[in-house]
Design brief:
The structure holds two protein chains of two kinds. Chain A is 70% helix and 0% strand. The longest helix of chain A is centred in the C-terminal third of the chain and has 33 residues, at 218-250. Chain A is mainly α. Chain B is an all-alpha fold. Chain B contains 18 helices and two strands. Chain B has helices spanning 9-16, 22-34, 36-52, 74-81, 87-99, 101-115, 120-129, 134-173, 180-219, 254-267, 272-285, 289-298, 301-304, 307-319, 323-336, 341-353, 357-370, 374-388; strands spanning 222-223, 239-240. Chain B has a two-stranded parallel ribbon. In chain B, helix 12 (289-298) runs antiparallel to helix 14. Residues 171-178 and 241-251 of chain B have low confidence and may be disordered. Classes of the chains: A mainly alpha, B mainly alpha. At the A-B interface, helix 3, helix 5, helix 6, helix 7 and helix 9 of A face helix 1, helix 3, helix 4, helix 5 and helix 6 of B.
Chain lengths: 251, 390
């Protein structure tokens, strides 16, 4: 391919027209006219901050920026790497984009950002693999639990006599065990996914219907959540009541 | 309800959710007030509800966190979320998401990271990490596009030649042994033809480029007191009298000819960087600063580490009377090549503009050490005299 540079004057009317385009149309234009400055201006005005925040969040989750002494340089390199992926191979990534909705591009850019950050992490790990240094003077620090306090500590703080019941078992494992028993039918996996998204992540029924491929209306999702939540409450209560009873008898 | 009248778990949940009928509700509430065990269990239910509303941070870890061969790649996760899969794939993915908490969490974080707008705190953190704005990003993208275009051109060229050879060789393989000698002879002939063709093409493009440069460097006439020196062999014969009041440039046509030659060289596969640099010089000569600036942006002059590109970008800023930027560019050029004489000369010019006469004299002295062309040396000596007389 030859990418002939086309000088495009960005006059106000062009800019207005570009503003009217859908996200998918802007992406398509960038792929078709990669040297068109005006089109990229529009792309950046819409998506630059989304790329920045996706990279930032991915880095924060993995802890790349905290570990690096040159956080700003690493971060900037990763953001630029996302753009290089977009324009590389004659804008292949942009040409291959097939958005089903206006939000699709954000998900697409987020996926590229994730790949870029993970690749960076792999290369950093590969470099470090040969030079792992362990202090012989100080013991290894225990890693913080990424999923927060255990259920046992929650129970203890609430002064319920149920430590024995939950010993070694997290509430999440308990929930998943119950869901495996109570959710049945053809859409079993989907329904479990819906209730997990609601309970673990705090997504509303509307958000789940909109952002995940569950093929249900917001109302349908809300009904599923409500039904399964009640079943969960009931099963958890039943188990606790039984345990409570047996502890009472024991003492 | 058990024989003692105590509530079972379903009744507790129904009562709490307001799904019991009037009679049942009255009876259950009365029992709750009288029975300490049911009252305790009612508290347990409230606690369960609050735990379930607390999010996964308060729920501990899930069992399955190990990566398996079935785990989803980011692309597969994206395709799932975009509904870009068939029913069977979807069912398989949902089953896997149910079993593998790692993939589940990866998918959720992708959705959260991509779709949620940045919070104020995140914006502040990002602002501290980078100063690249959406606007300034555009020029970077254009330079990436330009660089990628060069890579693509090289790949297409290499593939084209290889394909021709591969095709020919495959053809010869199918022939019987008796045909091998003619096939080899034909291959040699073809290689000779390709060599001759490439040689002529190479000669053409280097001649065209050289001619474009010659046209510019021999014809461009400047007032030295007004113009900074472009990179390359611009002849001292092109320098107008120092304090001459006469217009040095008169409706020149040679820049168009040079531009035309450079573009022809481009079609013959000449070095695109070199062509763009010549184009930029033409635009500078024509005082079309916007186009020249656009080219330097695309060539990523500031980060190129090329002394000549940086010098020419400095000439652009000098022409726009942006002394600060011009000085930075000339200094960057000298950092890339401390013996780049045009940049020393230009640095002297810009320092003089900024009123730094000592700095200008220092730069001129360094320039005079490096310059061997008599005409340019004389012009610099004149310039130096003028500075010293102030």
């Amino acid at each position: 391919m030859s990418c002939k540079v086309r000088e495009v004057a960005l006059n106000p009317s062009d800019a207005m027209d570009l503003k009217k385009l859908k996200n998918t149309e802007v992406v398509k234009l960038c792929a078709e006219e990669p040297s068109n400055e005006a089109v990229w201006s529009e792309f950046c005005s819409r998506f630059h901050s989304a790329i920045q925040s996706s990279v930032y969040r991915e880095c924060s989750q993995i802890g790349i920026l905290q570990r690096s002494t040159q956080s700003a340089a690493v971060y900037e390199d990763l953001v630029q790497e996302v753009y290089l992926k977009l324009v590389g191979g004659d804008c292949r990534a942009l040409r291959e984009f097939k958005g089903s909705s206006e939000n699709s591009i954000y998900l697409y850019l987020g996926t590229i950002a994730r790949n870029v950050v993970l690749n960076h992490l792999s290369s950093v790990k590969a470099k470090k693999r040969d030079v792992v240094q362990v202090s012989l003077d100080s013991p290894l620090e225990q890693e913080a639990d990424p999923d927060g306090p255990s259920l046992e500590s929650s129970i203890r703080s609430r002064q319920f006599d149920l430590e024995e019941y939950f010993k070694g078992v997290s509430l999440r494992q308990e929930i998943e065990g119950i869901l495996s028993q109570v959710v049945q039918g053809k859409n079993r996996a989907r329904d479990k996914l819906i209730v997990k998204l609601a309970i673990y992540e705090g997504f509303s029924a509307e958000e789940i219907a909109q952002r995940f491929p569950v093929d249900l209306s917001a109302k349908g999702v809300a009904n599923t959540i409500s039904r399964l939540k009640q079943l969960l409450q009931q099963a958890l209560l039943e188990r606790m009541m039984l345990k409570s009873k047996s502890l009472g008898k024991g003492s | 309800m058990d024989p003692g009248g105590c509530l079972n778990s379903a009744e507790f949940v129904r009562l709490r959710e307001g799904q019991s009928n009037e009679n049942e509700r009255t009876r259950l509430e009365k029992h709750l007030q009288e029975c300490p065990r049911c009252s305790h269990n009612s508290q347990l239910l409230e606690w369960i509800v609050s735990l379930l509303a607390g999010g996964k941070q308060k729920m501990g870890q899930s069992k399955n966190r190990e990566e398996t061969a079935l785990c989803l790649t980011p692309e597969m996760t994206y395709r799932y979320l975009e509904r870009d899969i068939n029913e069977a794939e979807r069912a398989r993915i949902e089953t896997h998401l149910d079993e593998c908490s790692a993939c589940y969490e990866t998918m959720v974080s992708l959705v959260k990271n991509s779709l949620a707008p940045a919070s104020e705190l995140e914006k502040q953190a990002i602002h501290q990490l980078t100063s690249v704005t959406a606007k300034s990003q555009v020029s970077r993208i254009l330079s990436y596009v330009q660089a990628d275009s060069k890579v693509q051109q090289r790949e297409v060229g290499a593939t084209g030649l290889w394909d021709r050879l591969k095709h020919f060789l495959r053809f010869s393989e199918t022939f019987t042994a008796g045909w091998r000698s003619p096939a080899l002879a034909a291959l040699a002939l073809l290689l000779l033809s390709i060599g001759a063709y490439e040689g002529i093409r190479g000669y053409n493009r280097s001649w065209q480029l050289a001619e474009a440069e010659r046209l510019l460097q021999q014809n461009y006439r400047v007032y030295m007191k007004d113009s900074a020196r472009l990179s390359g062999g611009y002849g001292s014969s092109g320098v107008a009298a120092f304090m001459s009041g006469e217009q040095a440039e008169r409706t020149p046509t040679y820049p168009e000819k040079a531009l035309d030659l450079a573009q022809k060289a481009a079609t013959n596969g000449a070095n695109p960087d070199k062509i763009r640099q010549i184009e930029a010089q033409v635009y500078l000569i024509q005082k079309n600063y916007a186009k020249a600036e656009s080219i330097y942006r695309q060539l990523k002059a500031e980060e190129s580490g090329s002394a000549s590109l940086l010098n020419d970008q400095g000439v652009l800023y000098f022409s726009q009377r942006d002394w600060e930027k011009a000085q930075n560019a000339f200094e960057a050029s000298l950092k890339a090549d401390p013996n780049f004489r045009e940049a020393w000369y230009n640095l002297a010019l810009v320092k003089e503009r900024k009123g730094d006469l000592q700095g200008a004299l220092g730069a001129l002295d360094r320039y005079l050490e490096l310059e061997t062309d008599e005409g340019w040396r004389n012009a610099a000596v004149e310039f130096k005299k003028r500075l010293e007389s102030r």
